[in-house]
Design a protein that fits this description.
The chain is α+β, with helices and mostly antiparallel strands. The chain is built from 12 helices and 23 strands. The chain has helices spanning about 1-30, 75-105, 115-130, 135-195, 205-220, 290-300, 325-345, 350-375, 520-525, 540-550, 570-610, 615-650, and strands at about 40-45, 50, 55-60, 65-70, 220-225, 230-235, 240, 250-255, 260-265, 270, 375-380, 400, 405-410, 415, 420-425, 430, 440, 445-450, 450-460, 480, 485-490, 495-500, 520. The strands form 9 sheets. A 4-stranded antiparallel beta sheet has the order 14-13-17-18, with no helix packed on it. Strand 21 and strand 22 form a beta hairpin. The longest helix is centred in the first third of the chain and has 62 residues, at about 135-195. The radius of gyration is 39 Å and the shape is elongated. Residues about 405-415 and about 420-450 have low confidence and may be disordered.
Length: about 650
């Protein structure tokens, strides 16, 4: 009787196993179009064995088949390769989009180019050279200068606006990363609850967890592993993110006055998630992964203007054959290298900051060159500061400091600023300071005035031209700074009028010829007669207009800070745009190749994990036949047992 009942159990096990396999196959077929679904596979094994006659020595008989596992069919190595490539694709794609945005801002893709504004201004100056006193020619220069500055400031404002947009993306991406971390942690707990009882596998929840991990790899570089209990532990940028018990959320801090956000780890003493050195993110170091990092690099971590572009000193400009000249050149090279290192780390990798710095360099060069022709200047050194009529100290164009030791530097606005480290460290450090800075304190917190020499600039009355107005105006620049007069009018010791260069606006802040702070001088635009293009006798000053024309052939600057060879305005702009086009092409190519890799790995995953309808239908037929066979087997055993029982009863 026992063997008979055991035979029935064998049939039942076959029936149940076939039914489970049919259910699994049906589940696969119903999810054939479900994104992220992993094909499930039924694994069969033998059921337990029982001894014959109560003794294992005399033999054993089995109780049929059992379901050992319903497992997901995945290739972990392909999964890892996919996630790595997916993160790298998002990193470069975000930067490629930023470069495209910059190109569009300059209008190179729409046929309305920024270069047209430059050419129009050049042509207006050429016409002015034919007749410097012509009202029409002067008006045309004002109009084209206004158009040039309007376009320049608009682009600069749009760059700032796009930087703000990218900054908003940083906040959105941080929130998304935290949300995915919470989702993974929640799924970990649900999976443990289901599988902890050992009754069934939480395969569908594991699919959701893998999908969340796939998406997370798009936003930030991840590495991960599974614990012995099956929990997924995730590190983000090498830092524990999803642990066995909690999620270490990413937060942000504000890094600049523009409110730019920097991701930090609150759980780890608020350390930055990424290095502030943007140049460290590269393929060689395997640190080029994640959309968040790509967006931050494209955005940059601050602002940039022409002062951030280092200029390599030329030995020919120094008397290097003398100890003093050689020392000055060596110091200039050290200062240059410090600025170059800063540019390479924090400006050049960012599409926005490098565009800001390059554009501002071009505009500043053109504006200052044109103004310097109309307002020629001479410089003079003095050991004492100069003051205006109200007793306010005037800002020099350069300060020469002594070599005292300092720890904290303050500029003339009372704001703390950084000096350039020359030697030493801590309280023994010696700094050199930018020429626009003046006041600072020593290591004991005492304010000092360690200025050896002041360099002031004056309007050169021997070279200046005059306006056609009754006052014979001098010092009227074409481009002016916001709320800033170019000169402070005062008198020298002999009572003669002098025009001292001014670099402070009405609010008392340092004022530079930088985008956002420059416009066409209202004095010149409202009264074109005041533009100084006439001699003192009221004749046309063709020498001045010719100087303006010659500016367009002047070797003004180089796009690459490390190069000696300089280019004119138009070539500088062509190189500037060309470099962005080249970078954009490189990023496009890299993104395209990376996209192919991601697609290839995804195809491999689908080949392994995807549901093949024909294959599943074949399995459906196979398991239906197995189910029918088990059912028929049970019927036969039932008939045999019925006849046996009836026969024994008879």
């Amino acid at each position: 009787m026992a063997n008979g009942m055991g035979s029935l159990y064998i049939g039942v096990s076959g029936l149940q196993s076939a039914q489970t396999a049919l259910n699994t196959t049906a589940h696969n077929l119903s999810n054939v179009n479900s994104t992220g679904y992993t094909r499930q596979q039924t694994s069969f094994g033998t059921a337990i064995y029982l001894p014959v006659g109560g003794s294992s020595i005399s033999g054993q008989y089995g109780l049929g088949v059992k379901i050992e596992d319903i497992r997901r069919v995945r290739n972990e190595f392909v999964d890892e390769a996919y996630r790595s490539s997916n993160g790298r694709l998002s990193f470069y794609k975000s930067q490629s989009e930023a470069v495209e945005e910059v190109e569009e801002l300059f209008g190179e893709l729409q046929g309305v180019t920024y270069q047209d504004c430059m050419k129009n201004l050049k042509e207006a100056i050429n016409e002015l050279n034919k007749n410097p006193t012509s009202t029409t020619a002067r008006t045309s220069v004002i109009q084209q200068a206004t158009a040039f500055m309007t376009r320049s400031n608009t682009i600069y404002q749009q760059l700032n606006s796009y930087q703000t947009t990218l900054n908003t993306q940083v906040r959105t991406l941080v929130d998304k990363i935290n949300s995915l971390g919470d989702q993974i942690q929640e799924l970990n707990e649900k999976i443990m609850d289901i599988e902890g009882a050992g009754v069934e596998s939480a395969n569908d929840l594991k699919d959701q967890r893998d999908n969340a991990l796939d998406e997370l790899s798009e936003y930030i570089k991840v590495d991960y592993y599974y614990t012995s209990e099956g929990k997924l532990v995730v590190n983000a940028e090498g830092t524990p993110f999803v642990t066995e018990g909690l999620v270490n959320h990413i937060s942000t801090r504000i890094s600049s006055e523009r409110g730019l956000l920097v991701p930090i780890w609150p759980a780890y003493d608020n350390v930055d998630v990424f290095s502030q050195d943007l140049s460290k993110a590269n393929n060689y170091n395997d640190t080029d992964s994640g959309k968040l990092k790509g967006v931050i690099i494209a955005r940059g971590n601050g602002e940039a203007n022409y002062t951030d572009v280092p200029i390599k000193p030329n030995a020919a400009d120094y008397d290097v054959n003398t100890p003093a000249g050689e020392a000055a050149y060596n110091q200039a090279m050290r200062d240059y290298q410090t600025k170059q290192d800063y540019y390479d780390k924090y400006i050049e990798p960012s599409a926005i900051l490098s565009a800001m710095a390059g554009l501002d360099k071009l505009v500043n060069g053109m504006v200052e060159d044109i103004n310097n022709v109309l307002c020629p200047e001479i410089t003079q050194e003095t050991t004492n500061a100069l003051y205006d009529s109200e007793g306010n100290e005037l800002t020099a164009v350069n300060y020469q400091y002594n070599s005292s030791t300092h720890s904290v530097l303050y500029n003339h606005q009372g704001k703390q600023v950084d000096g350039i480290l020359v030697s030493g460290q801590g309280t023994d450090a010696i700094y050199r300071y930018d020429s626009s800075e003046k006041l600072y304190v020593d290591v004991n917190g005492q304010q000092e005035e360690p200025v050896d020499k002041y360099t002031y600039a004056y309007l050169d009355m021997n070279k200046t031209s005059y306006g056609m107005d009754d006052d014979k105006t001098v010092g009227c620049e074409l481009f002016s700074r916001s709320e800033t007069e170019r000169y402070v009018k005062t008198t020298d010791a002999n009572g003669n009028n002098i025009y001292l260069r001014n670099n402070i606006n009405k609010r008392g802040d340092l004022s530079l010829y930088t985008l956002g702070n420059i416009s066409v001088n209202p004095t010149a635009s409202q009264n074109i007669d005041k533009i100084p293009l006439s001699t003192k006798q009221g004749k046309e000053d063709f020498s001045k207009t010719q100087e303006l024309v010659d500016l367009w052939d002047k070797k003004f600057a180089t796009l690459n800070p490390e190069a000696y060879a300089k280019t004119n305005y138009e070539d500088f702009y062509s190189d500037f745009v060309g470099e962005f086009a080249m970078i954009g092409q490189v990023l496009d190519n890299y993104t395209s190749n990376q996209d192919k890799m991601v697609t290839g790995y995804d195809d491999q995953r689908l080949q392994v994990s995807g549901v093949a309808t024909d294959e599943e239908l074949e399995k459906m037929i196979k398991y239906q036949q197995a189910y029918n066979a088990a059912s028929r087997y049970i019927n036969i055993i039932d008939e045999v047992m019925d006849r046996t029982i009836n026969a024994l009863g008879g």
